[in-house]
């Protein structure tokens, strides 16, 4: 069986966690392939909201195996807290959770480096979640990082201390002192806990599962516009958030990729710094933020809000080979008389284009098409046939522009608020 992949098409927080949870019952395995505790994936069912940072979003289905792949950067402290929280809620996550021995470890000093390097950037700061993501991926590429498999080595502590020494010098380079508080003790407790779990060669596990006909869903974190190569660099995260990241982050050969679910909000948000052509600085943006409860799942920061951006979506669809789209949070737009859709960018040179220029930081004027709002509470709708005409026009317009069918329409945070549409297979 091929591996299906679910990818965020905007700047993250599209609703990936919700849809992975909805799709999970049709899979045997859910696997995370990149990112780490910078992610916050929200799931809601039976009146309870759960936010997952590092644990895959298939964890609430007792018969599904969940894998944290080699491409992930794992913070043992955050991870143990997540596991304990699940345990308190009656979920035995350890039973069906497998962690790649090749996943990189975030150690407490990575977070220190993240903080001092952001401070040094001043106004140019990236707006990082400060979870140590960038510094940990730097150590991975610099070939000095620690991996999950290392924690069973007798000299693990020595290796840890060598890395810590490097980090101390780096923090001093920024004119500050390394300050770990009591985090080291907590870290080693979390390492002890990690040792009790199923640490595996997940590339073998996944490839054998594929051979045995098991169905696998790879869960992306962040979004295509935060990709380290193709995102709005340098205001990006430090991993490959695209489909290609699932190949390197799980050990899946490109020819084994199946469906690619591209997930986007009916509008657009961004948290952290960096360009955002359709951002609304007015009351409309504030109304979207309030109606959509657009505050970060990981940091609580208010998310910047704006209209949907088709040049950006087309770009993300192209880079990921998306075969079906999932549209989230259209219910948030109920109150609006008019919905705006950005179809093109007008550049400083006067050129009008639907392609992303090299830098989105140059002045860009979005070119909008106005569509009538639907003014119906979509959250109350239970069947696709009952969707209002104005809303169906919005969907048809987006499908025509993007040339990919919308297979899922999400109309509320709960698992049940999910409408599926019949689509013709693409690709
Ligand atoms: P992720 O990082 O892509 O998993 O997304 P987040 O969990 O960070 O952010 C999505 C937010 O929107 C969460 O609070 C979800 O509960 C919520 N959400 C997801 N789908 C819908 C929807 O269709 N309508 C509404 N109103 N909220 C949704
Ligand atoms: P999920 O998986 C939204 C953003 C940060 C910052 C930039 C770099 O929940 O969609 P980092 O901590 O990676 O160094 O931050 O990327 N960012 C996210 N924004 N959702 C996320 O994850 C994000 N993960 C990182 O806000 O701008
Ligand atoms: Mg999120």
Give an account of the 3D structure.
Helix content is 30%, strand content 21%. With 427 residues, the chain is an alpha/beta fold. The protein has a ten-stranded mixed β-sheet, sandwiched between helices. Strands 14, 16, 17 and 18 form a four-stranded mixed β-sheet that branches. Strand 3 and strand 4 form a beta hairpin. The two termini are 17 Å apart. Guanosine-5'-diphosphate binds next to helix 1 and strand 3.
Q: Indicate the overall shape.
A: globular
Mean pLDDT across residues = 96
Number of strands: 20
Measure the end-to-end span: 17 Å
Biggest beta sheet summary: 10 strands, mixed
List the helices and strands and how they pair.
Layout: E1 3-8, H1 16-23, E2 29-32, E3 41-45, E4 48-52, E5 65-68, E6 73-74, H2 76-88, E7 97-100, E8 104-105, H3 108-121, H4 133-141, H5 156-173, H6 183-195, E9 198-200, H7 202-211, E10 216-219, H8 243-250, E11 257-265, E12 268-270, H9 283-291, E13 304-306, E14 308-309, H10 310-320, E15 324-328, E16 338-347, E17 352-353, E18 364-372, H11 389-402, E19 406-410, E20 418-420
Parallel strand pairs: 1-10, 1-11, 2-5, 2-10, 5-7, 6-8, 7-9, 11-15, 14-16, 15-19
Antiparallel strand pairs: 3-4, 12-13, 16-17, 16-18, 19-20
Helix pairs in contact: 2-6, 3-4, 3-5
In short:
The chain is α/β, with parallel strands linked by helices and 427 residues long.
Describe the structure using short key phrases.
alpha/beta, ten-stranded mixed β-sheet, binds 6-O-phosphoryl inosine monophosphate, binds magnesium ion
